[in-house]
Batch of 2 targets.
Target 1
Amino acid sequence: VEIITDVAALQARTLGWRAGGLRVGFVPTMGFLHRGHTSLMSLARPRCDKVVVSIFVNPLQFGPAEDLDRYPRDPEGDAAKCEAAGVDLLFVPDTAGGGFYPGDFSTTVAVSGLTSGLCGGKRPGHFEGVTTVVARLFGMVQPSLAVFGEKDYQQLAVIRRMVRDLAMPIEVVGGPLVRDDDGLALSSRNAYLSDEQRARGLSLHRALVAIAASPEREVAALKARGQAMIEADRLDYLEIVDAETLAPLAEVDRPARALAAGFFGATRLIDNVAIAPK
Ligand code: PAF
């Protein structure tokens, strides 16, 4: 895999590919890659001529008390995983000097409505940070297609809306959530968990599966059942929403999604499952 750290060199390469009629696929990441990320690369690979992966731990999407400073990193391991996944270009922006954002960077991309609840409600400014960096990365990479994981279900919906609203000529593909053998949703942040926290973290998935399997239609009853099962130190939210609009539901009468976020020690885990109409 070719590794590029300079924006001008990246754009020269990707614009050259586009001019040659090649379809460029893009998987943006924050690194410390796992099977969830490589599954997104595998979705891009057969759909595109060239696959670009970026690794950038984006400060704009972290709150002041969050884990920006200790976010796990593994540059060599990440490059090896990209190589094995058949990635053509790995973009690791050089953050020295001017950094990724110029000193007078003054643009924010914000999607309203979809970002007000769930993680957006609990992490103020998070999605503005995500949409701003993703819009900037799209400008840098100029992809025809971009892949995002359903693990961050709200993020995927927000990116789809941004791409639609700003008429970006990019096909957004969602990749299914990938789990460890024990059922824990793969996340770079799982590396923070002690064995005991990890064991309790599995309760998120168990609760969501129980909700999806229940014949109950009333959301209040389903949430009460799920909440009783989750062994978090602090439950951020457990919600059942319309799968498309993310609007809260009173009854499961259409395709829905159950989503949960909670703290296990200092580590915040998120998970979600699809719920078919009952
Ligand atoms: O999902 C992530 O890893 C990040 O939010 C993303 C999309 C790479 C933007 O920094």
Target 2
Amino acid sequence: VKNKPNLALLASGFGSNLQVILDEVSKGNLDATVRVVLSDKQNSQSLVRAKKAGVEAVHASPKQFESREKYDAHLVALLKERDIDWVVLAGFMRILSPVFVRAFQQRIVNIHPALLPKYPGTQAIERAFEAREKEIGVTVHYVDEGVDTGPIILQEKILISEGETLDEVTRKVHELEHRIYPEALRRVIGPF
Ligand code: GAR
């Protein structure tokens, strides 16, 4: 019998958001068990972070699969074997097909560095900056079958001031992400 939900963290890249979640769980600030970290990229720093935290790290390469659906079915099987309750996307740079989304209906959460519905997809910070937006932000949302379209859990804005560089703005966005992702997860995962 478990008294906490099992989380799977999925990441493709550097994994700074994933690190914050691992830290919050180990400090007891997020009442969950991180059961597995899964990456589509072998060289993702997220796999190193998982091992350091004593969490199972799994690399699953899409290259061995002939379709998105087959790859996603493989991920679903991996996660179901580990009795995952919540799938937390932390810079997982792949679109999930309905095969995946339907297997974890209302149980997949994503963080996106923009004020959705503006700037879905990749390079959101760069695109907002280049469009000279005066405000930017971060959205945590449930994942549905669209691209960055699911119901919003938490969204926060920051202002871009005159003369700020893309690097400065990017750093502020990441700081905001690291603050609100654990908060949003506490809200959705709640008491088990
Ligand atoms: C984060 O900014 C996250 O919001 C973004 O990738 C970055 C990953 O950074 N995700 C997307 O753009 C999803 N469309 P991290 O690996 O350091 O957490």
